[in-house]
Write a structure and sequence with these properties.
The N terminus is likely disordered. By secondary structure, the protein is mainly alpha-helical. It has 13 helices and no strands.
């Protein structure tokens, strides 16, 4: 696997960054500044959700790495997954499962905006705990990553929210078509990337993908259990579980190709999680659906 190279050039990198930025803009059209008021009206749910994402998931990930002792590249992929913010598809799953959609949107908004700082800080802190210098260099330059994430995530998100605030009628008309178009573009991009790098995907041992499934499942059930232990209502439990197990793998892939020389193992781990959480998130939402 170490001899396999990802077929990904500078033009592809620019296209990936543009896709992620366009998706963030289209997602932000659905957000409102008023969503942040939820933090003050329902602080306990937000605190538990953030604690699950920023404390529980990192601890779970580090313990899992120490137990299964994966390769350094796979460990770096698991850590990067953990450091990424929640994915916006979790909002849809919360809707399917009749969870707390306001809490879901609030957590997604906070994690997306804070990812500019949180993602590099969290990854660097965790990697220093479990990856030694002898195991290979997976350092993430803080300022460079902060600037890149800011351009690709933060600025498009702020622009989208401001546009929705200043031009609400236009935003309401274009937000669904734009999100569909952006997801279609990203899907086509991923299909082409997979086709061009099929050797990379087939070179990954199946056990690595099984560990990704286990990691994802533990993230959901652990977060669900934490919310239950802290006596959150059923809607909050489901939402917090979904927010913790659904990551913005698009941002993770952007970091891999910008800063980790398109490491094939990390890229495949992230790509597989991004595919799997679409399946697992829907399953969890249906199984733990809150009754009327």
């Amino acid at each position: 696997m170490n001899d396999v190279q990802v077929n990904f050039n500078e033009d592809s990198l620019i296209m990936l960054n543009a896709c992620i930025a366009f998706i963030m803009f289209s997602v932000a059209l659905h957000l409102r500044w008023e969503n942040l008021k939820y933090v003050f009206s329902n602080p306990r749910g937000v605190i538990v959700g953030l604690a699950s994402q920023l404390l529980f998931l990192p601890i779970l990930t580090i313990l899992l790495i120490l137990i299964i002792k994966p390769s350094p590249a796979m460990a770096a992929g698991m850590l990067l997954l953990c450091a990424c913010p929640g994915g916006n598809v979790s909002n849809f799953f919360s809707l399917v499962g009749r969870g707390n959609i306001e809490l879901s949107i609030t957590l997604t908004t906070i994690s997306s905006f804070s990812s500019v700082f949180i993602t590099p800080i969290l990854f660097v802190a965790m990697s220093s705990m479990v990856l030694s210098d002898e195991q290979g260099s997976f350092s993430l330059p803080f300022m460079d990553s902060l600037i890149t994430i800011g351009w690709v995530i933060l600025i498009p998100a702020i622009t989208g929210m401001l546009f929705a605030r200043w031009k609400p009628a236009i935003a309401d008309k274009i937000k669904r078509p734009l999100q569909s178009i952006s997801m279609l573009i990203l899907t086509v991009f991923i299909i082409i990337a997979v086709k061009n790098n099929w050797e990379v995907f087939t070179s990954v041992h199946p056990s690595n993908l099984l560990w990704v499934i286990l990691h994802n499942g533990l993230a959901f059930f652990g977060a669900f259990g934490l919310a239950t232990l802290l006596k959150r209502p059923k809607q909050d439990r489901l939402t917090i579980g979904l927010e913790t197990s659904t990551q913005n793998t698009g941002l993770g892939l952007m970091i891999v190709f910008n800063f980790f020389d398109a490491n094939p193992i990390i890229a495949v781990i992230l790509a597989f999680w991004g595919t799997w959480h679409m399946v697992s998130g829907y399953i969890f939402a249906r199984i733990f659906r809150v009754p009327n």
